[in-house]
Amino acid sequence: MATKKKSAGRPKASDKVAPAKGKLGVMVVGLGAVATTMIAGVEAVRRGLAKPIGSLTQMGTIRLGKRTDNNSPLIKDFIPIADLNDVVFTGWDIFKDNVYESAKHAGVLDEKTLLQLKPYLETIKPMPAVFDQYYVKRLHGTHVKKGKNKRDLANQLIADIRNFKKKVDRVVMIWCGSTEIFIEPTAVHESLKAFEKGLDTDDIGIAPSQIYAYAALSEGVPFANGAPNLTVDTAALIELSKKNAAPICGKDFKTGQTFMKTVLAPAFKARMIGVSGWFSTNILGNRDGEVLDDPQSFKTKEESKLGSLEYIFQPELYPDLYKDIYHKIRINYYPPRGDDKEAWDNIDIFGWLGYPMQLKVNFLCRDSILAAPIALDLVLFLDLAKRTPSLRSIGIQEWLSFYLKSPQTAEGLYPEHDLFIQSMKLKNTLRHIMGQDLITHLGLEYYD
Ligand SMILES: NC(=O)c1ccc[n+]([C@@H]2O[C@H](COP(=O)([O-])OP(=O)(O)OC[C@H]3O[C@@H](n4cnc5c(N)ncnc54)[C@H](O)[C@@H]3O)[C@@H](O)[C@H]2O)c1
User: Fold this and answer.
1) 313 — phi, psi (to 5°)?
2) How is residue 294 annotated by DSSP?
3) Are strands 170-175 and 127-128 parallel, antiparallel or unpaired?
4) Rounded mean pLDDT of 332-361?
5) Distance (Å) from CA 93 to ligand 1 centroid
6) Arithmetic mean of pLDDT, 269-288
7) Of 151, 87, 100, 104, the residue nearest 126 (C-alpha)
8) How far apart are CA 381 and CA 375, in angstroms?
């Protein structure tokens, strides 16, 4: 369908999205496979060497008005998001490697591509990280900040943020660091006051990812979490996010297997097809796989991956179809595959009169190739949220659930995992903030 550019939107006076003027600084925690693939990719796109495939902000369109209006501009022409040429990267890592060296080590992008980008990638050198091996057993950090307690470490990160703010106009932070051990929220997470006291007393419930998030939110900087760690999904940090108008969203990039789950499960449910079992297994050989080989980090990932089916199937509403699903997830570290993960799903389903059937999905994907555009979109959309009066002070940006395995919601609200509901929610949020009519897909007006 041909797209026709019209004057984009009619912003309400109360919700005028501020323009994306000047430089957007992106602070990346963990310059590993995903982060370096994102950074190198952005530079390749800026130089016209490749297309930003997989990125909704760069390639997606949005329908405005009726189907007969024939008006579907690019999202980036409709809303004021930062131009890629205005994006500036920096970050922290527990190893000293610059982004070129780290990308080479990750082995996601080929040598030829990396060599073309080398002069730029070498300029991004990580700042020393806040790290404690207690929270990621398989890593031994060598490029790490020292501090007398967790409060001191948070203050050092705040100093890093303030320094960076001198060079750019706006800042967003994203966690692309390793998966930390499974932590349940405790009293220290119940309020901002308790959390700040916990920083002073080195509370064990405060992992490094929470210290970064605290530093970002304290500075009014939006924060995204690409890993499944307990990070901003606590009352304490939600409070800080609202207090300082620093948007947050859910966690854990929704890339391979869970992406497919949240497409297939809604299809079964829409047709009232029953499911008795869903066995998901993965092999991967990158550093992420090595970290997840530790049972405590795996537990964090498992919890994040398990949630989606339960919420999509709503067994309490459909006991005959989904009450007894056996759902199992396995992740095995298998070095020969590097970043080229392979996932298998065996799904036992049943149809009319209970007759059983099976579906097999074998996804040979590239983990970081799928994750990089998600990381980029999250950063650009969080920056947009920060510039939008009706979004910046509400804390959780549920409309970004589209990108995440574990969406975050207001207390008492169940999360939407269905990818197509999430996509509609995201696009309607964009229409809403730009003063456009929402699209309900009712469509009766075409038959008047
Ligand atoms: N690739 C995907 O498809 C995908 C999908 C969902 C979630 N994730 C998550 O994204 C995260 C990054 O994945 P990856 O494949 O890039 O892993 P990676 O191991 O290549 O990179 C992680 C980087 O974080 C660094 N790091 C660890 N702790 C840190 C700290 N406290 N401070 C600063 N740096 C720290 C490590 O040194 C490493 O360089 C992981 O938690 C992973 O589970 C990835």
Assistant:
1) -75, -20
2) S
3) unpaired
4) 93
5) 10
6) 92
7) 100
8) 10
- What are 121's strand-pairing partners? none
Candidates 29, 18, 135, 181; CA nearest to 91 is: 29
Which atom from ligand 1 is nearest to the alpha carbon of 95? 37
Handedness of CA 159, 161, 165, 170 (dihedral sign): negative
Per-residue model confidence (pLDDT) at position 5: 41
Q: Is ligand 1 within 6 A of the CB of residue 39?
A: no
- Which H or E run includes 29? strand 24-29
85-99, 197-211, 277-291: lowest mean pLDDT where?
Answer: 277-291
Q: Which pTM does this prediction carry? A: 0.94
The single-letter DSSP state of residue 74 is B
d(CA 376, CA 391): 19
255-274 burial code (b ≥16 CB/10 A, e <16):
bbbbbbbbebbbebbeeebb
32 lines ligand 1 (CB under 6 A): yes
Which residue's entry shows tokens 């303030």? 162
Q: Cα 162 to the chain's mean position, in Å?
A: 24
Q: How far apart are CA 229 and CA 182, in angstroms?
A: 7
Nearest one of 192, 262, 250 to 382, comparing CA atoms: 250
273 touches 321 (CB < 8 A)? yes
Q: What is the DSSP string of 86-146?
A: GEEEEEEESS---HHHHHHHHT-S-HHHHHHHHHHHTT--PEEBP--TTTSTT---SSB--
Each residue of 30-43: pLDDT tens digit?
A: 999 999 999 999 99
The answer to whether 64 and 431 have CB atoms below 8 angstroms apart is yes
**Ligand 1 pocket, 92 CB below 6 A?**
yes
Q: Write out pLDDT tens, residues 297-306.
A: 888 777 766 7
Q: How far is the CA of 393 from the centre of ligand 1 (A)?
A: 28
**Per DSSP, which regions of 216-311 are E strands?**
223-225, 248-253, 274-284
Taking alpha carbons only, the member of 78, 63, 79 closest to residue 1 is 63
Closest CA to 219 of 287, 182, 170, 152: 170
